[in-house]
Amino acid sequence: MKFNHVTRGIEMYLQSTYNQTGAIRKTDFSVTLNEGETILTRSNHRFLLMGCSRGSKTAVFRCQEQCIDGGWPCAESLLVME
Fold first, then answer.
1. pLDDT of the chain along its 82 residues, tens only?
2. Do 38 and 68 share a domain, yes or no?
3. Residue whose C-alpha is closest to residue 66's, from 11, 51, 43
4. Shortest CA distance to 52 belongs to which of 42, 40, 39, 61?
5. Three-state SS at 42
6. Burial level of 82, CB count in 10 A (0-12/13-18/19+)?
7. Structure pTM?
8. Number of domains comprising the chain
């Protein structure tokens, strides 16, 4: 897991411990990973409280409600389309 300062996001990766190939049944998709190779599995983006409201306005959303966790520097925001 690492914090990307450019996108203000937390990125999570899995690292292959050996050479392997994985496939999704009923599709033509497969992926080969070499030992030590990583894949991005999750990306969470963080915004300052002011940035969330400001950004939502430019995207035709309104921040209707926001629950702020006092123990963690995070909030859950409910954005409603205008």
1. 787 778 777 888 999 999 999 999 999 999 999 999 999 888 776 666 666 655 555 567 777 888 887 777 677 777 787 7
2. no
3. 51
4. 61
5. strand
6. exposed
7. 0.49
8. 2
